[in-house]
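Task: complex structure prediction.
Instruction: return structure tokens for all chains below.
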Amino acid sequence: MEVAPRRLCIRVEGVVQGVGYRPFVYALATRLGLVGHVGNDTRGVFIEAEGPPRALDTLVAGLTAAAPPLARVDRVSTTSQPPAGGQSFTIVASRSPGERAVLVAPDAGICVDCRREMADPADRRHRYPFINCTNCGPRFSIVRSTPYDRARTTMAGFLLCAECAGDYADPADRRFHAQPVCCPQCGPRLTLLDGTGLALQGEPVAGAVDRLRRGEIVAVKGLGGFHLAADATDEAAVARLRARKHREERPFALMVSDLAAAGALGEVSDAEATLLTDVAAPIVLLRRRPGARVAQSVAPGSPDLGVMLAYTPLHVLLCAAAGVPLVMTSGNISDEPIAYSDDDALRRLAGLADAFLTSDRPIRTRVDDSVARVARGRPLMLRRSRGHVPRPVTVPWAFPRPVLACGPELKNTFCLATGYNAFVSHHIGDLENYETLQSYLHGITLLAELFDIVPEVIAYDLHPEYLSTKHALECTGELVGVQHHHAHIVSCLADNGVDGPVIGVAFDGLGWGEDGTLWGGEFLVATRAGYQRVAHLSAVPMPGGAQAVRQPWRMAAAHLQAAYGSDLPDVGLAGRHGRRWTDVLAMANAGVSSPRTSSMGRLFDAVASLVGVRDSVSYEGQAAVELEHLVDPAEKGSYPVGVVDGAPRQVCGADLIRAVVADVGRGVAAPVVAARFHQAVADLVVDVCGRTRRERQLNVVALSGGVFQNMVLLDRCVTGLTAAGFEVLTHRTVPPNDGGISLGQAVVAAARAG
Ligand code: ZN
Ligand code: ZN
Ligand code: FE
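Output:
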């Protein structure tokens, strides 16, 4: 029996442009014998489909279930229409007007099909460094505006040749409507320039590899900016790169050809293999293999190596020809933003690079590499940027008015939010210099334009000296100040789509507290709109302010004095620092240039100094990271820590200090002391959460803040809390560090301002 045809109007929302969604719909609808059309507009993909009801049901179900790899379908809605007939199913041209809520896809690493074609001597894109298709290649980094079309990308200047135009127009082709499609005839070209910017003769990749083999440093233009590349096995080359970049000890990232090469450097679990081969291709922190063939100065003193797989066709060619792991560090001098335009690279990297491997494909937006690791069997984001941005974090609560959250000072990201989407920006960096600030301001303008968001609510950190705060106060809109640690906890709630109230444990370096002291060892009972500080680490002076961050021995002095008063035990620090030691003690005692802090990060610093890990650092968190790495996994001991009840409760950091000093004095090995200290912090977390639960009947704990990048601490906290019957929330898609702050700020501001 013939069933009467029906016609459906279907709307698909989410990341559905630039990811091969229309050809996918075309193929599915054609296979089901449906007629109608599919197209892009500023809200996503629209479809009209007509045919038997059962085929329409299959189509609608398939729109989510069978979507292409780079797509992310958030919503499919349908309305019925009177049948209109038709002969075929077609793809129609983009509609332009209307609101620009459409989501631009993140940049994606090279796919297996493109890899295969590039290796095939018979393919016309054999060894072509800009090969791409619907399933891979540049997206966000080349987009100028939406809807996503070639004319609105930096590929606009490359006219398609006849063959590429054919690929682009053929619904059966993998490159159907792939906006950056190109080939050696019509697409971008590589060039190798010497250190002064003069073009060099010969095949550019081979020329670059020759130079790397000679120990030279080559600036390589990638997807989101320039890297500085060096042979990672060449100690002299890596040391020279460190000296030129003014980067003393912070580890360099490595790039290798494939999973096998990554496995030769570090231990790769199944979860780590999945993370390495993800389309986002992040830098993954791996436990270094003993005897891994890399120069000592790649990651001095670190048991981990940051490794990524070659993710652009150019990287694939380069790594294959080099045959060794390459250092691939961001193309900048220490804290400046990564260079992404040729002019900028030649200007700023002139003294750093001996040669430039570049191309004529412009980068519209700089995007740094993302960094992740596996924690408790699942990915933990440490820097969310290339491959993830601008995909929004979708939250279960609407933003009634558009929000701009200006973010923190260090590891800055900002966030633009509208509807149910929070667009957390690419990694901006530390807002400490002019270049980074400019990059921050440009980034805000670009994303606001891209998503057509005009912020009405402006969220900012309470720290009056943050440049992001100063920017916020110059914006027009309703201003909402958000306490730093509240933002951390709400970021974790948003990351999990869980509503409060919860017990929030926010441990980090420093954040401005409501009482004018610097917080960082905080227990909050938090909802999206507000919080109460129910407990915190006892506060100590931070002698010399920012100097105490660079010199953990100063924090050791302050904590010793808080624990012992004037009768200090001799732990060797006085001998190591001489006159400065007594000066710093006097400074802390008098409270001169010594803001008070309840920071957990600074307590880790103090303990690192007490056990002899290090007295000064060249990057934030270095001492704490080394203390974590020192932990003897076999040691199960802990230290008792007192908690003084009150509002708020005080956690006696002094108990920890006395216990550590006693063990050190007894000659207990540093790895054992480090293990007991970590366990003691986890135990005090369980203790304080337990007390809070009894009073507030709250059973959910959210863990956030940079200190929870510490895998040992995270693991022991989750284990302890779970054993005590708590439900524990940890981060998933945004980092626990300050890179996740802007998401929390946006959600808090919306909850407060409406
Ligand atoms: Zn591809
Ligand atoms: Zn072509
Ligand atoms: Fe923080």
